Each structure stands twice: as C-alpha cells, then as structure tokens.
Amino acid sequence: MASKTYIEDIQRTLYDIREEDRSIYKTSAGLSEEIIRDISARKNDPQWMLDFRLKSLEIYNSMPLPTWGPDISALNMDEITTYVQPDAHIVGSWEEVPSEIKSTFDRLGIPEAEKKSLAGVGAQYDSEVVYHNVQKDLLTQGVIYTDFESAVHEHEDIVREFFMTLVPPKDHKFAALHGAVWSGGSFVYVPEGVELKLPLQSYFRLNAAGAGQFEHTLIILEKNSSLHFIEGCSAPKYSVTNLHAGCVELFVREGARLRYSTIENWSRNMMNLNTKRALVEKNGLVEWISGSFGSHVSMLYPCSILHGEGARCEFTGVTFAARGQNLDTGASVIHVAPHTSANINTKTISKSGGSATYRSAVKVTKNAHHSKCSVNCDSLMLDDESRSDTVPTMDIEAGESDIGHEAKIGRISDDAIFYLTSRGIDENEARAMIVRGFVEPIAKELPLEYAVEMNRLINLELEGAR
Amino acid sequence: MNILEIKSLSVQVEDKEILHDLSLTIERGKIHVILGSNGAGKSTLMNAIMGHPKYKITSGEILYEGEDLLKLPTFERARRGIFLSFQAPEEIPGVTVENMIRTAKQMISGEKIKIVPFRKKLRSMMEELKIEPSYASRYLNVGFSGGEKKRSEILQLMMLEPKLALLDETDSGLDVDAVQIVSNGIAKFHNDQNSCVIITHNSKILEHLKIDRVHVLLDGKIVKEGDSSLIDEVNSHGFENLH
Questions:
Q1: Does residue B230 contact residue B27 with C-beta atoms inside 8 Å?
Q2: Which residues of A touch chain B, with CB atoms under 8 Å apart?
Q3: Model ipTM?
Q4: What is the value of pTM for the model shown?
Q5: Tens digit of each residue's pLDDT (9 = 90 or more) over B138-158
Q6: Where do the domains of chain B lie?
Q7: pLDDT reported for residue A463
Q8: Residue of B92, B95, B108 with shortest CB distance to A424
Q9: Is 3.30.360.10 the CATH classification of the domain at B2-242?
C-alpha cells in the first residue's frame, strides 16, 4: 500500500496557535456519575451505552493507577474537564464549519490534504467531531466512515458487538476512564474485498485548556479488504495539564490488510495515555506506523493479537523525547495461532534531559508453533543528561518458534561529529544529519510527506532546546 | 607563498604531550610528504590542524593563508579550504555518500548545488576512482571495506576541491591497484593553486606524483627536511640515522 499522503508544510508554532475557547457547553471538572449521565444524555446514548459508561466508571473507581512506567502523579482527574462541546455541529462540507475552527484545520493542512490525497476525513475539535466526509464512490461500495456518535445510532448492532471488546474497561484504569467518558472518534467499516486506494484520515485537535480528549476509533476490515488509516493529533500548549486517553480497536479479518499511521504531536502539557489494539485473523496484516513526538508523558504500546494462522504484524515506531518529556512507548504482540509472524522496529531519541523508554512484550502461546517474531530497537541519546531505557519482555510457550530481540543504546560520537564538521558542515547540522540518519531506515518506509514532516519535527526538536 | 605555517606547536592528547615545539611550512601549489615511524605524531598533527577537540594545543600557532587557524572551529577551517582524508573514516549510518558530499559542498560554497550537474560530476569522479555507482546511495562508510573507505575519502577530496589536502595514510591497507587508483586521484586533484600533505609509510603512492618537499617527523618533532631525494634516503637507511 504505497499510497501518498499529503501533509501540509507546518511548523511547531502553527500547532501552538490557540483559538479562544468558544465551547458552548462543558461539564464541570472531575468525574462523577452525574457528569457521566450528563455526557450520555447529551449524546442521546442508547440505554446499553449509558449502562456501559456507568459500569466503566465503577471499574475506574475500583482500579489502582499503574504501578509501573512514568510518573503520572501530575494528573489530577478532579481538574480535568472530560467533555467540551464546541460551538459546531458535524457537517460534511468545510464551508459550514465555523470559521475559527476551520482556520485551525486549515493551518494543519487538513482540507488541503483531503483535496489532494485522501478518500475521507474526520476532524474532531475538543470533544466532538465537527467535520466528516467520505468520497461518494466508497459509499456505493458499502464503506462506512463516520463519527462514532453517528455510528452508535446508525450502526448500533455492529458497534454494540465490537465496542471495547478488544480493550475492555477492566484492561487498565484509563481504559475504564475511556469507557466512561468516551466522546467523538471514528468508525470505519470496509466490506469484503473492497480495497481503498487512498487513505482515510481522522484528525483530533484539543483546543480547550485543562480538558480531556477521549475519542474512540473502531475499524473493521472484512475479508480481503484493505485500508490505510491515518490518525493525527495536536494541541496548543497550556500551563495546566491536559489528558488524552483515546482507544483504538482494529479488527482485521482473513486476508485483510490495514495500515494504521499516527504522527502524534501533542503539546508538552499533555498526558497521553492511549490504548491501541488489533485483532488479526488468518493471513491478515496489520502495519503500525507510530511517531511519538509530543506530550509531557506518554504511555503507548499498540498491541497486535495474531489470532488466525499466518497473521502478520509490522510495527515501525519513532519516539523523540526532549526536555520535560517522559515518553514510554513500545509495542506488544501476542501470537495465538501457528505460522504467525511479527516484525517490530523502533528508534528512540532522547535529548536535553528527556527520557525515552522502549517497552515491548512478546507472547507466543502453546498453539502458535512455527511463529516468528523479530524485535529491533535502537536508542540514541544526544547528551549526558538524557535517558534511554529498553524494557523487553518475552513469554514463549511454543517450542518451535523463532524469536529474536536486538537492542542498541548509543550516543552521538564526538568522532562522527568531527568527521562531518571536517567537511564544512556546522555542528548543529552535523548533529541533525546524524539524528536524521538514525531514523532514516524508518523514514524511508513512510510516505514521502510523512517523512518530510518527521524530519521537520526532528529539526524543530533539535533547534528547540539548545 | 605559504598556505600553512605551523610555529612552535605543542599538542597534548589526554594530558600526554605528543608534539613538541613543532614547526612546519606548507607552500601553495606544492606536494609535501611527511614521513615518520608509527607513533611519531603524524596523525596528531593532522587532527590538530583540523581542530579535533581531543587534541589540545598547549602552545604555538598555526597560520592558514595568514589567518590564525586555532581561533576557528573545525567547520570554518573546512570552509576556508582545508580537507583531511582520515586514516580510519567514521561510519555514518543513514547518511548517504551523495547527500553528505552535496551538503558539505553547499555549506562550503554557501550556494545551493544543483542536483543534476552535481550527480553527473559525482558519477564521473566515482568512475575514475573505480567506485560502483550504487555507492552514491549507500550510507557513508557503513559496511565499506578498508579500501572502499579510502577511495570514498578521495572522492570527497575531488568533489570538495579544497585548497589544502591533508592525506593521512590514504594508501595504508590498499592493494597495489587501489594505491594506483588513489594516487591517480590525487594527481588529478592537484594543481598549482592547491597543496597536498601526504603522510605515508609506503612510497608506492608517491611514484607518479611530483614531490616538492619531504619532512621527517620523529618523536613529535620535524627532524629533517629536504627535497624528494630524502624519500630514497629514508627508504634505504631507515629513520635511525636521521636523529
């Protein structure tokens, strides 16, 4: 799926432009049954969904915070506004989107990208989707791409069957939180044999200070279908903590192929506690492209369950932690069926006191004989104050399986810098070349504009805290 | 006219003095050769001229075209026209040969280098050095054999066209044919406007070059200087009697 994705030529300052908070409704900060009932009523949830939310709240209240990983004590749920309704209704044409919201997405290049190279776009602003559109010919082929609230009403049976079955609220505390307060997100259904030539893109923009974003993404690919889905996210910077606890559930049926790409660029006051999981059936393929550049703290470990014989997973990740950032990212794979294979390649970079941890988990169950898994993680620390850790775990029950793990942690050597400067390249550019070179094997797997965007973010990061 | 004047230079590496009060003059448009036994300080001298941070200048000065070189950071020295061909070039993963040379050329000239003519020139230089065309898109020195690394250094020399080329044992570890190729590369590069300083153990590389000056460096000092006949003298009698 070598589809081309257009990403506007953007700079960090563009991410940071705040719009005045013109939301028409906000719940009060914190979490209570009353707030959940309020959100649910505003969405006109069916009874089962309200029950689901309340049950999730109960689970949330009964569960402890994770005892491992980065420090998330800065997050005080009593101060987070879980629902912020923008002054806009979902529409299918950009002209109808209120101008100040539209200008945000214009700056992010979304309408432009849609014209050039996307088959459909969803745009969420704070808690609600404000724009959703998909090419007409996809509709005639039976493709569904809609905001999640519409899906709950218009495709209730499917949603009810799949919603939070891959990531149940009991999974962890923030999955429970998500189950209670989810709002917005995307629903995609691709019928058997339908192959989308162009990607779909959902963009999540959090504008309100002190707010949480809890979008839900559910994608179902029927037999032998294929899709490239792109998720983008950003927020302007505030002095108070914002929270993102989204949830992504991907169902890849027999012979289907899904590429799920994310370049996440949250601002540095964001707690990004996100859960993504894919269930891959016989000979199906899930490809994850995951770029983590922003946020104050991230915990993100997309998981692939290789459930059918011959199911495959390719994971490609880049994480860049700069000053004040603790990015704990990685991937996990569960081999459940025979002859399944997974390839995990990640690069992490830390600088200016940033901390990057790569955390992976590979499990091969008894039944998954003749499975293969290769994990490769490279870390690069740009200075002495930065941290990099690798925490791999492996649990192999099947005898005949081929599992490999390779981890390298390194620094930029003075000799490499000297070599490039001796060619007339100044020190900063030499450093940037080495960093870009470090991620190059991954960048070349990305669609061109994505690679350009990643390089731009790397340059900004390198310039940022000198 | 001198391009480089080194006056009473002392250099330390990790608190150990390697060069003691060394003086050396390099003339414009000439080829100089520095001979010396292992550990005499030849590479230290090259690195000190280029400004490697590990090499600490404790006294003396280096003038390049009359300018105080020691005040300049390494990249400025390169931009003013000094080039060092390393004995053991670094591997830079993810940065292609072509990209590095083009970036360097842009930085040195301060101008945008057009890709098409640049590539054409790169191709022809590679051909001359018998480097496979595919190496242009390989990562710099990664997985290159010793000989390929040296040829890649000479390729950079030919593309960057410095005024002063410092060649640190560019012939070591090369077979006879490769030495010939590298030697031809140097001959092609050299003209009456640029200077070469060649450090070598092996006079093979010098056979087809017109050597103007020879300096013998022993124990951190220049102990003898002369014309090309000094090479034969060292070849037949060794360094022993030069002290």
A1: no
A2: 413-416, 418-427, 429-430, 433-434, 436-441
A3: 0.96
A4: 0.82
A5: 999 999 999 999 999 999 999
A6: 2-242
A7: 66
A8: B108
A9: no
